[in-house]
Amino acid sequence: MPMTVIEDYLSPPSPSKMENHKRRRRRSSVNSTMSYDSKVPKYVPPWTTPYIIGIGGPSGSGKTSVASKIVSMMNVPWTVLISLDNFYKPLTAEESARAFKSEYDFDEPSAIDLDLAYECIQNLKNGKKTDIPIYSFVNHNRVPGKTIPIYGASVIIMEGIYGLYDKKLLDLMDLRIYVDADLDVCLARRLSRDIVSRGRDLHGCIDQWERFVKLNAVKYVKPTMKNADAIIPSMSENTIAVTLLVDHIKSKLDEKSARHIKELNKLCEISSGHNYLTFESNPKVIEIEKTPQVNAILTMVVDKDTDRDNFVFYLDRLAMILLSRALDDLPTYKQETLTTPSNYEIREALRCNFDQITSVSLIRSGDCFMKSVRKTIPNITIGKLLIQSDSLTGEPQLHGEFLPKDISNFEKILVLQGQVITGTSTLMAIQVLLDYDVKIENMTLVVFLATEIGLKRIINAFGNKVNIVVGKIVMDIDMKNNQMRWASTRFIDSNYFGCT
Amino acid sequence: MSTEPYKNVSLLPQTNQLVGLYSIIRDKDTARPDFIFYSDRIIRLLVEEGLNHLPVQKRDVMTHTGENFPGVDFLGKICGVSIVRAGESMEQGLRDCCRSVRIGKILIQRDEETALPKLFYEKLPEDISDRYVFLLDPMLATGGSAIMATDVLIKRGVKPDRIFFLNLICSKEGIDKYHAAFPDVRIVTGALDKGLNEQKYLVPGLGDFGDRYYCI
């Protein structure tokens, strides 16, 4: 019996489209009469539309090796390989006893919880966080309290003998592959695997093959071949077949990336028609006042000859100014009577809940705010997100998330990032927080430097609901005139931390 | 953006945050660690506001992408002068913004016999007359000691319009008395209180700042 557990090739990313849909629906139902809504570009984050591949075929036909070949030839991060073996149904005591005597039929479709598999893949397809169960073949039960969490991914490969069996699962897939091999080849592979690698005895293996595996393969598995888009021969060298498939998958992913970039660009175009697009008149966007001090600090920050000591010092100062500005509009509540040490009473004194603030830093550039965050609120909880842009497609990928418990209960969530350039990683960070039920109005994005394009994308993608506090906005026109290209390179965090 | 409710008085913007910070330090139930922390935050804002009044000069710099950036640079030397003891609590806030700033000290106490403020001690930078001076004292109540301290500075050759008097709380009465003596000194403050009681304490005030910051 195959024992492979799920392998996630790189712990993968991402959040939810469901939430997104809900929100959009809610908004459009409320504002359906406003032309505003129809003009708002629909931004579908790339991580919410994974490419799903199903691989089926008889036991021993070589599904796992085909899947691994695809993964390694694809060489895309966020490829997740899920084995249907994880979805075996828990057995009753009686069934379990039979299983130990090799009398339980693990090779029948009903042994696998295909409904749960569907639910998981559906969640992944919606960009939601999903927990894949872990099955213990020792106890014939799911390992309690242990699951493999997976978030949406670029590519999801689901393999198992019944990979192409379930109609609902088939509908979720973008590509269905059947790995074919003659049953005698399958038997030979099974025997060598079970005896050599898994220490079973020959008799038991043959017995199981004859009683269950072969019958099911003929009865249930072979017919699923008709559901396949491609049938891969497993008998011989199949590199050419796999290469063809990989090329196909890559072209589909390229199309998706191109669509993503187009959508990102649309976010800036449509913006120009909206009144909230001049930053000065947009109450949601605060570019800090350019006092002489702030101008002098900014000069130090962009000057390439500023030494590290000074760079760190002045960036910290800028961070304090930005954070303080971001907190100016904290919600207040009234304390009925405040008594001073000299016993004067102040009626209805305004208080702020400084302990109702949390922060989420985007590793690494948001970490430039850490010292100042602690100096602003000493015991603040700090969440972290690691989002990296794919160097080829520019698509953001969530590599890690460490968020405060009950983050949605905080009154103010500071989202900290060094620079907004393309805006894509910020879009993803905000989306992740939305998936944690953080209200968008409670978020304040705090950045040292931002480009006009990046900010417009953020503003438009979320209907101008995110609060933004920024040290300096660099306009498109200045960058095009080659005066401020420095704003399109990431330099703040590398200078601050002293590693490129 | 700060406002100027009276001539040569800069009042920090009365944001929710700032008012919330003041409520913390005014509250008698606030424990000392919180009192210190939140006072320090206000002090930092006062220092930032004070620094904004200092002149800058044009300075073009080169960015790492090889472009010219028309920037500005700090102009002129500054120093801090704290009125011992409460004023010393504001030194760190100044240092946090200006790392190696020179800090002079002045001790003024009430003379037991005359009940008038008396200068006991002063230690000031040699070249103080060339500098912008941040005079530090958290409360401007009657203005007695601040006036005496400012007098010391002016006698050392500091120009009045180069003095910035930073305090956390003041009252109209205190401002008027102080400005009657030194109209050209800019007062930078975060709160305007109603007035003074019979003991000449600010009302509502926050009690004795020095005691709360250092002792109680």
TrEMBL record, chain A:
Its EC number is 2.7.1.48. The keyword tRNA processing does not apply. Keywords: ATP-binding, Kinase, Nucleotide-binding, Transferase. The keyword Kinase applies. One of its GO terms (molecular function) is uridine kinase activity. Residues 52-240 form the Phosphoribulokinase/uridine kinase domain. GO terms for biological process: pyrimidine-containing compound salvage. Residues 290-478 form the Phosphoribosyltransferase domain. Pathway: Pyrimidine metabolism; UMP biosynthesis via salvage pathway; UMP from uridine: step 1/1; Pyrimidine metabolism; CTP biosynthesis via salvage pathway; CTP from cytidine: step 1/3. It catalyses: uridine + ATP = UMP + ADP + H(+); cytidine + ATP = CMP + ADP + H(+). Residues 1-37 are annotated as: Disordered. InterPro entries: P-loop_NTPase, PRK/URK, PRTase-like, PRTase_dom, Uridine_kinase-like. Transmembrane segments: none annotated. It comes from the Eukaryota. Coiled coil: none annotated. Belongs to the uridine kinase family. This is Uridine kinase. The lineage of its organism: Eukaryota, Fungi, Dikarya, Ascomycota, Saccharomycotina.
TrEMBL record, chain B:
It is an enzyme of class 2 (transferase). Its EC number is 2.4.2.9. Pfam families: UPRTase. Its cofactor is Mg(2+). Keywords: Allosteric enzyme, Glycosyltransferase, GTP-binding, Nucleotide-binding, Transferase. GO terms for molecular function: GTP binding; uracil phosphoribosyltransferase activity. Pathway: Pyrimidine metabolism; UMP biosynthesis via salvage pathway; UMP from uracil: step 1/1. GO terms for biological process: pyrimidine-containing compound salvage. Residues 13-214 form the Phosphoribosyltransferase domain. InterPro entries: PRTase-like, PRTase_dom. Belongs to the UPRTase family. This is uracil phosphoribosyltransferase. It comes from Maudiozyma exigua. The gene is FUR1.
